[in-house]
Amino acid sequence: MLTRVILIFLLFVLITLAFAQNRETVKGCIAGNVTMQFKPALLAGREVKTYVWNKVRGIFKDPSFAKFEPSVSSQLEIYYNEEHQVQNRLIHYPEEPATLYLTDLRKSDQEQYLLVVSYVDYVGTPPEWIIDLDVQDVCFEKPKDVGKCAVSTCYTGENGVLKTPDDREETVNGLKVINVCEKRTTGTYYCCNSKGNCIVQ
User: Fold this and answer.
1) For 44-73, what is each residue's pLDDT tens digit?
2) Which of 15, 70, 159, 162 is the most exposed, fewest CB within 10 Å of its CB?
């Protein structure tokens, strides 16, 4: 009995580890861009027929999100555009078949995305990869040194506010790039969204 319990536990651990290796979390800023690089373990020497992405759409609804069929077209086919709200925001390059680029991020983009790959003339368990996309309501990009300036970006989505060290408030509709190049521009900056949630830098 004890041996059986141990075997069941080990099987559960192995399944969990295998699943964890096929899944990752990607974070992005609202109004910013994100790269979702799916990395399914493909079979060497096998021709891929289709790459199909799924995204939760609610119970009893087809989760199909997008499809890429290399032998048919170089274009990504997108399903249910109105619900997914990715019109002109989803970018796909044929030379990077399993990678999606999503621009102008919205909170509604935050979801679980599943890629399923099928092969030509092959029957078996299709390789999968899951990405949990986390879209932050408001965030500051880590400053980068550009010449003698420190450059950062405040992401707030629509109707945001940037508060500068000299107590000025600037409207942010999506994002605003900040250049700190002189002593008078240094200090504490507040990046705030329309709900009043702020991040300090």
Assistant:
1) 989 999 999 999 888 888 999 999 999 999
2) 15
3-state helix, strand, coil in the chain (%, to 5): 15, 45, 40
Per-domain residue ranges of the chain: 23-136, 139-200
CB 141 within 8 A of CB 29: yes
Residue-wise pLDDT tens digits, 69-127 = 999 999 999 998 888 888 899 999 999 999 999 999 999 999 999 999 999 988 789 99
| DSSP code at position 127 | P
Residue in 145, 159, 138, 131 with CA at minimum distance from that of residue 24: 131
Superfamily the domain 23-136 falls into: Immunoglobulins (2.60.40.10)
Q: Give one DSSP letter per residue of 145-165, joined into a string.
A: EETTEEEEEEEEEEEEEEE-T
Model pTM score: 0.82
